[in-house]
Write a structure and sequence with these properties.
With 149 residues, the chain is an alpha/beta fold. It has a single domain, classed as eRF1 domain 2 (Nucleotidyltransferase, domain 5, 2-Layer Sandwich). The protein is built from five helices and seven strands. The termini are close together.
């Protein structure tokens, strides 16, 4: 990954489908100093606790043919809801003038779920998207990865 310049005061949002860190650069572009503003976490219970019913069945409109209905992916739904809430939270922060510019770092799958939830205001201040999974790293490690040449 090439070096990414993080501007003074810029927000860096590091997330996946279950956790998000909202960081702000208290340093400058040359010497970033990321400080944690907020942390969001979603519990990730096992599938057996999320969905209790067996998959449903349907009848064909004619005849006696029955077929099963696909199993709901509860983890996928939970991730989608979490990321949509995060996008709305970021939008509110932008509207309130708290964030003027931001960099979003998330695994490709999470970015794919987030993009449809971007408001126009969020799109306007989004300076870069980085498709990496840094959410489990300590903040100083995230800084190193972002500024490494």
């Amino acid at each position: 990954m090439s070096s990414l310049s993080i501007r003074e005061g810029e927000w860096v949002v590091v997330c996946d489908g279950a956790k998000a860190l909202i960081l702000q650069n208290a340093g400058d572009a040359k010497f970033p100093n990321l400080k944690t503003l907020e942390v969001f976490e979603q519990k990730d219970p096992p599938t057996r606790e999320l969905g209790t019913d067996k998959p449903g069945r349907t009848n064909a409109s004619t005849g006696t043919i029955r077929s099963s209905v696909g199993q709901t992916d509860w983890h996928d739904q939970a991730e989608q809801q979490f990321l949509t809430k995060l996008a709305h939270h970021l939008d509110a922060a932008i509207s309130a003038g708290k964030a003027k510019s931001l960099v979003l770092i998330a695994p490709p799958r999470a970015l794919g779920m987030l993009r449809p939830a971007y408001s126009q205001a969020l799109k306007n201040v989004l300076r870069a998207e980085v498709d990496k999974d840094f959410v489990k790293m300590p903040v100083h490690e995230i800084e190193k990865h972002l500024t490494a040449a």
